[in-house]
Amino acid sequence: MCDIATASIIIAGAGALQQGIQGIQGANQAERSFEKNKDAATIAASLQYRGVSERTLQEREQLVSEVARVTEASKQALGTGRLAAVEGGVGGQSVGALLDSFRVQAAQQIHDLTTTQKNRETQANTERLGIREQLRGRVLGGFQGVQAPSPLGIGLQIAGAAGQAYSQNSYYDPTTQTRRIG
């Protein structure tokens, strides 16, 4: 009977130890999965940032081209207007007003183009903030919160299982006033 009780204590302790080892392995696996998810999220965010930056750069280049086109068209219109006025022998305030209207139209077009670009850049900054928050959410969402059991906890679990097995397989001997396994 003593062998069964001792075996029961050993089995209970081994079972508690095995549960502790499985807890540590599970926590390690969860940490590896979290790190992989974090790396993938960081790479995805980096690619999204790059895409927003490239688009913004292309839009800026397009703005420069459009402003140059409008400026050149305005210069041509002013030159044509002056030439027509000189050839027609017209001068004075009406020609000045016509030439001023060409300048105002060009300035308005350039203003509209730069305002549109500012709005696009504000949108791009908002997208960048969204990418950052998406990254944070993905990383935090991947955190499982699994924690490995402490060695002290495993030891206490083993001791508790052994104590329980001992108390189940022992009896109080009134003659010796001690607990005996058996």
In short:
This protein has 182 residues and is mainly alpha-helical. The chain contains three helices and two strands; from the N terminus they run αααββ.
Structure report:
By secondary structure, the chain is mainly alpha-helical. 85% of the residues lie in helices and 4% in strands. It is built from three helices and two strands. It has helices at residues 2-88, 93-142, 151-168, and strands at 170-173, 178-181. A two-stranded antiparallel ribbon has the order 1-2. Helix 1 runs antiparallel to helix 2 (93-142) and helix 1 (2-88) runs antiparallel to helix 3 (151-168). The mean pLDDT is 82.
In whole angstroms, the N-to-C terminal distance is 5 Å
Q: Strand order within the widest sheet?
A: 1-2
Oligomer: single chain
**Roughly how much helix do the residues carry, as a percent range?**
over 70%
Number of DSSP strands?
2
Write the layout of secondary structure elements.
Blueprint: H1 2-88, H2 93-142, H3 151-168, E1 170-173, E2 178-181
Antiparallel strand pairs: 1-2
Helix pairs in contact: 1-2, 1-3
Task: Please describe the structure with a list of short key phrases separated by commas or semicolons.
182 residues, 3 helices, 2 strands, 85% helix, rod-shaped
